[in-house]
Here is the input.
Amino acid sequence: MLKVLLIDDEVLVRSGIRLILESDPDLEVVAEAGDGTGVLELVRGHRPDVVLTDIQMPGVDGLEVTRLVTAEPDPPVVVVLTTFDLDEYVHTALRHGATGFLLKDTPPRELVKAVHVVGSGEAMLSPSITRRLLTEFAAGTTSASARARLDPLTPREREVAVAVGQGSSNAEIARSLELSEATVKVHLGRVMAKTEAANRTQVAILVHDAGLA
Here is the structure.
């Protein structure tokens, strides 16, 4: 059972998303709110696995929600909800530690699937959407600081990092590098530790900023 905290200022949107998610017996919306006020109390009290938050809200917006939640010890994954796939705030949210994003018009079946995917720690939605988002918002020039953060990686860890930057799932990386998925997870964990990335999305952004994907 994956527990979800839902934050959106539109009551109808929240109700619709709750109905969609709870149509799956393995998903439960444990709490909801109209903005990010008191989000840490909700997270600590309900211990959700996934936080779905709108970006633009009155009061405490989704960017601040993301920053606050990802700073918690052993935080839930944060997914931002947006009306447009090129929302100007999405990339900032990802840099704050959000795992990914969902469009509010995502078909119900895909919404349920996406929550399961991100709850399991995998890439958010399809690789093509991930690559498009990173390409649109990543820095226009190669970052020397990003390259420096990747320098401590071993050749195999760098291969895994680049594959993540290309939007590949752990299963796809395992097949391409002829490794087990468990080994890929170990390498990815070391990549995140060495680069101080909070999640695989931040690894992907780092790889793009370094000009490697």
Summary: Residues 141-209 form a domain with the Arc Repressor Mutant, subunit A fold (CATH 1.10.10.10). Strands lie at 2-7, 27-33, 50-54, 77-82, 100-103. The CA atoms of residues 31 and 42 lie 7 Å apart.
